[in-house]
Amino acid sequence: NYDVRIPAAGTNWVAGGLTIPKDSTRKYPVYLKFSGVGWDGVCECDQNPDRIIFCVNCHGLPSADATWETDYPAMRTWIENYAKSGPESWQGNYQMIGTSQGRDNVYYRYVFLRAARAVEYVKTLPEWDGKTIIVGGCSQGAAQSVAAAALSSGVTHLALGVPALTDFSGDKSDPKRPYGWPYTTRPPTEGECEYFDVV
To answer: Strand, helix or coil at 166?
Structure first.
């Protein structure tokens, strides 16, 4: 098991747990598993004798030498406090950061860029079979998976469970459909919402 940190766009690092099977005579497919909504998947490490698994944390870490035990809780507090102090303070949730400040300030911009960076990283692993990259997750993890597949080359399979950040134009359909988490009350016609809609 490896605790991996990879420099990415912005001031944050891709971070997560990587496992590589022990048989060094073989090459393996890669499964990139993206964490779901909230603060789960802090440094998750799944095991499988037949594939490389990289469990990617949605929120990353602030630096290469940051620790999960001290820096991660501090970053979580900073993000939550930032969300509470913004124009969406009634929500107080990280997923609303920047939703009234233009698309370049939306929290998920860097989440999606980190997801794409994770794909680029696994393609450099010498144990990778050079062919198969599976990305997957549930909820927020599914949204990251779609973004990773759309923004990076080489993804061969997508495994999604109840994707979040989807169908923000559902209220324009006939009949109307509810749009996906985070169920922003901002009108879906605002450009920043549609820009991060993984549909």
So the answer is: coil
CA distances from 58 to 124, 141, 186 (A): 21, 8, 23
Query: Which residues, including other chains, have CB under 8 Å from residue 18's CB and lie 6 or more apart?
Result: 1, 2, 3, 4, 45, 52, 53, 54, 55
pLDDT above 70: residue 40: no
Amino acid at the residue 97: I
Dump strand ranges (E) for the chain: 2-7, 13-19, 28-34, 52-56, 128-138, 157-161
Give the CA count within 13 Å in the CB-facing half-sphere of 154: 20
Is a pLDDT exceeding 80 seen at residue 121? yes
Q: Residue 63: what pLDDT?
A: 92
- Whole-angstrom distance, CA of residue 16 vs CA of residue 68: 10
**Alpha helix segments (H runs only) across 86-139:** 107-122
User: Measuring CA to CA, which residue among 22, 5, 80, 145 is closest to residue 88?
Assistant: 80
| 145 phi and psi angles, rounded to 5 deg | -65, -45
Q: Which amino acid would we find at residue 184?
A: T
Residue 88 confidence class, pLDDT cut points 50, 70, 90: low
Sorting pLDDT into bands at 50, 70 and 90, what band is 78? confident
